[in-house]
Amino acid sequence: MSNGEAGKLPRTRRAMLAVTLATAGAGARAQTTETAYPNRPVRIIVPAAAGGPTDVMARVVSEGLNARFGQAVIVVNRAGAGGNIGVVQAAKSPPDGYTLLIASTGFFINPSLYRDPGYDPFRDFIPITELGASPNVILVHPSSGITSLAQLIDKAKAEKSKLNVINPGQGSTPHLTAELLQIQAGIEIENIPYNGAGPAIQALLANTTPVGVTALPPAHAHIKSGALRALAITGDKRWFDLPDIPTTPEAGYPALVSETLQSMFAPAGTPAPIVQRAARDTLEVLRDPPTVEKLRSVGFDVRARGPAGLAERVAREVPMWRQVIVQSRIELQ
């Protein structure tokens, strides 16, 4: 239709035509953008050291995305400052889809734990999808003689000194889980943070301190081998291949439910078609049966909820963890 012909149409029909043409043009641009992406390697920033739960998740997901993207997907570890260094680097990266972020629950926690984390979880990122979650686990060295959460709490109450509890880092969900246990059980503990799950597990294995709280994945193999004893899992259901370990609600603490979530984000401003493509392909990876089995075998329950599901999670957990930090009177970093 020519401009002259369009000009002779009634006003309402001209408006409808304009909307239709604009929508068609936006759709064509979106299709072109998505089709062109990616045409070079994509990097995934992991704000944690190699070998930890977030790194494990990122490497499994990147392996699946390699084939779907038709491009190399490279995992880049940027640990430090409780994860803030890597998250800030991702936030400041060009919003073109070639830098993505896979982060743990620390992404939700740090804005309340640090005076200036350097990023805003709502303003600086676009949610792509949840990836997987793992409950935390309360552990002891077998030589401790403690076989249940009730025994641990009785011991903590009987002794005058505070109970020393290892965790993988200040402000991590295991740390905050231990703080919740202290509040709900009416005991006094001394949290001993380590620089990551790996060092915390090694300290438990060496019996440096016989009690600890970590995410399930780094402890899973040691629980299965008997090198560490799990007293309770902080999930709302028992773990599929650890059926003898009770949940914290079963152990008498229904409000002590926490998990470490792994999620994928893009820097704010990334075009919607690219976010949609990354979400679609990542969800396909997470629904692949061998991938599901691989993640479950290392302690992850797969979550595949897409952008809307992750946006809902961010909106819920940022204020939730802020309340825990305030209630526990944890000093800001």
Report on this model:
The protein has 333 residues and is an alpha/beta fold. The protein has three domains: 33 residues, no CATH class; 167 residues, 3-Layer(aba) Sandwich (D-Maltodextrin-Binding Protein, domain 2); 99 residues, 3-Layer(aba) Sandwich (D-Maltodextrin-Binding Protein, domain 2), CATH 3.40.190. 46% of the residues lie in helices and 19% in strands. The chain is built from twelve helices and ten strands. Strands 1, 2, 3, 4, 7, 8, 9 and 10 form an eight-stranded mixed β-sheet that branches. Strands 5-6 form a two-stranded parallel sheet. Helix 2 packs across helix 10, helix 3 crosses helix 10 and helix 5 packs parallel to helix 12. The N terminus is likely disordered.
Question: Summarize this, please?
Answer:
This protein is of the alpha/beta class and 333 residues long. It contains twelve helices and ten strands. Helix 5 runs parallel beside helix 12 and helix 7 packs across helix 12.
Order of helices and strands: HHEHEHEHEHEHEHEHEEHHEH
The number of E-state strands comes to 10
Q: Pairing-aware structural class of the strands and helices?
A: alpha/beta
* CATH class descriptor of the largest domain: Alpha Beta
What radius of gyration results from the CA coordinates? 23 Å
Distance between the termini: 64 Å
* Number of continuous helical runs: 12
Poorly predicted runs of 5 or more residues:
2-32
- The CATH architecture of the largest domain is 3-Layer(aba) Sandwich
Total tally of structural domains: 3
Measured by DSSP, the beta-strand proportion falls in: 15-25%
> What would the principal axes of the Cα set say about the shape?
globular
What percent of the residues sit in helical stretches (DSSP H or I)?
40-55%
CATH topology-level name of the largest domain = D-Maltodextrin-Binding Protein, domain 2
Largest sheet: 8 strands, mixed
Q: Please state the average pLDDT score.
A: 88
Report the CATH superfamily of the largest domain.
Bordetella uptake gene, domain 1
